[in-house]
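Deliverable D5.2: sample structural annotation.
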Amino acid sequence: MSVREKLEILEKVSEIATLAGVRGKVDEERMCFVSGFGLPNDRSQMVYVRPMDRVVADSHVVTFFSPCLAVKHGFMKGVSKEQALDLLKKNEEIYFARYGIRSMDKEDLIVASIDSLLNTLDPEEFHSNMWHVAIAADNYEKEHGQDDF
């Protein structure tokens, strides 16, 4: 997918966000839509929406994600076996999100995420997706005594 196509998708995401009452901006360097949320107990969470390089049912796919924890690069270097099993168990229990690992340049991030088809994404679903991943990520951070993202 070209840079131009990604930016067009992100502009559509930004339009839907505006209709949903979600403040944020397109970050052209990271190629994602970025928004911050204030949560109860003076906590906050960043949520990102990025275009995926795939089309399903004639629609582009976007992923909503919110980081929970930064860990060292490499499988099992920064995540213990117990922590990996705990994430799998949480995936079975959590609604409207999932936990996974997103590799970055200098570290891996444990994230809460959810995918949506852009063609059917309406403001209500957008708002719901943003909150579900923000809350899932924040709950994981709270469990680990953090509020980094």
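Annotation notes: The radius of gyration is 15 Å. Residues 3-143 form a domain with the Yope Regulator; Chain: A, fold (CATH 3.30.1460.10).
The annotation will be released with the project's public dataset once the embargo ends.
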